[in-house]
Amino acid sequence: MNAFQYLGRNWPEVSAKIVQHLGMVGIAVAASLVVGLVLGIVVSRPRLQKVGRAIVGVTGVAQAIPSVAVIALMFVYTGIGPRTAVIALSIYGVVPILFNVSSALLLVPADMREAAGGMGMTPLQVLMRVELPLASQSIMAGLRTTVTIDVSTATVASVIGAGGLGDIIFVGLSVVRPDMIMAGTLLVASIAILSDVLLALLQKSVVSRGLSIRS
Amino acid sequence: MIELDSVTKRYRDKTSVDGLSLTIPDDAITILLGPSGCGKTTTLKMINRLIEPTSGDIRIDGRSVFAMDPIELRRSIGYVIQEIGLFPHYTVEGNIGVVPGLLGWGRVRIRRRAEELLELVNLDPSVYLRRWPRELSGGESQRVGVARALAADPRVLLMDEPFGAIDPINRRSLQDFFLRLQSDLKRTVVFVTHDIGEAIKLGDRIAIMRDGRLVQIDTTRALLEHPADAFVEDLLGATRSAEQLLLYRAAHYVDTAFTVMTTEEMRRSGVQAQAPLIILRDGDVISGYVEKGKLTTCEDLQEAVCRFEIVSGNATLLEAVTTLLESGRGRAVVQDADGTILGTLSVPMVAEIMAKVAR
């Protein structure tokens, strides 16, 4: 049997795994995005910029920690199941978003903030109308990294009983069924590629065209 | 009228502005001039409360700015900074529409205002409305920056070295443009610069600052004739002769012996034209000048006409000489902001003026 025959014959089970996989990734990405955005905004405020720069340094290095390690570590504290996987993915996924949000906001030129404030924008308006739009390109890049990492790492989460597409690959591994391993891999890869394409489209509509012009 | 009443700004380890009292008149350009660190930018930013003074009061038309909501205050004042600060993620229209948007204007009204302002700053709205700031040259950005500051029709404009980052030639034409604009609009402008030539060219009055204090405030001529102390004298560079050219406005030293004629009148009067210098002007277009004696027969008219440079009456003598030397032309026609011909200038004339001043 090849991978496609496997998928065809087991579609009900496979589609349930896809839903599980997407569910874990979706919740984790949403949580990482909220936490990363809020933290990134907070540490880029003028009074906290020292903290912000430290955060940029730490998160820059933290991206080198293997994602599997975070899952294994969370397993020690919260046991088996999808809950542990979601928590681990959420924590791990904060890192690229926080790194990109805080570094991009810290890079917004001071004269942009000054011009905005001097024209009578409130601090919230400066953030929403000037700082975040100027940082949007980098924020979207961070989000895309997190999504890609979460889609692939959620596969490994199968070993702590989280379900998802990893189940197909790991079962295939234990009973030596290359068609199953291949099927699982194809699905994970397709989801990763498809979600990145969708996010690229979103990025195009979110980021102002004026920012992509080289002057 | 803007009144600063013993305004002081003290930071932990230094006093940036020290008991400054200053009255800024309506409808005129007041320059804050001084070396870097003299507190001129701090003073400017205290007017729209981007910086809060430690003590003292600032009043606009009798009302203390500290009795106003700072956000509303800033929306009512035009503000232009050195790096222009156009928002790259907004189009030109979006940039001009920032303050009107904050004030809750509708889309259509903002569009109409943006078109109006672009025309005012000599940029074609059909071309520039949709442009992005990064597609603009330095000079165009500055014009849009000025248009943006004027968007909600503020009485007061605060300008912090707005032309500082522009190359000298474009800076000159931006200064000329700004003077023409001001002669139409008559705003109360507070303009910070450390460029003495710019101060003398643009300023109706110049306030000279040092170490957070006001040293002297007066018109350019009065400052030159009666400098308050050695610092002012030094600042105005009364030592080296070439730099002195920076201190005098072209308008005050022009050769006024000229007659204006249209090309047609010139043709008709021909050899009989007696004036020492005839400037040919048809409507708004000045096509050249003819020196006495050059005109022999009517056939020679085209040959006799010399090309020339136009210099703003507010320009410094240094600027006029530079323009002449760069172009290689014999004379410059000096023109007022509203187009009136004030007279002409030539390099030998300037040399003569300098010789007189040196004595």
Describe this structure in words.
Helices cover 80% and strands 0% of the residues of chain A. Chain A has 215 residues and is mainly α. Chain A has a single domain (19-207), classed as MetI-like (MetI-like fold, Orthogonal Bundle), CATH 1.10.3720. Chain A starts with a helix and ends in a 9-residue tail after the last helix. The mean pLDDT of chain A is 92. Chain B has 2 domains: 2-239, Rossmann fold, CATH 3.40.50.300; 251-358, CBS-domain (Roll), CATH 3.10.580.10. In chain B, 36% of the residues lie in helices and 25% in strands. Chain B is built from 16 helices and 16 strands. In chain B, helix 8 links the parallel strand 7 and strand 8. In chain B, helix 5 (107-120) crosses helix 7. The longest helix of chain B has 18 residues, at 168-185. The chains are: A mainly alpha (215), B alpha/beta (359). The interface between A and B is medium-sized, with 24 and 30 residues.
Do you know the CATH architecture of the largest domain in chain B? Answer: 3-Layer(aba) Sandwich
Give the low-confidence spans of chain B. Answer: none
Q: What would the average pLDDT of chain B be, to the nearest integer?
A: 86
The number of E-state strands of chain B comes to 16
| Shape by Cα distribution of chain A | elongated
Individual helix count of chain B = 16
Count the strands of chain A? 0
Low-confidence stretches of chain A: none
Classified in CATH, the superfamily of the largest domain in chain B is P-loop containing nucleotide triphosphate hydrolases
- The quaternary structure here is heterodimer
The main sheet of chain B comes to: 6 strands, mixed
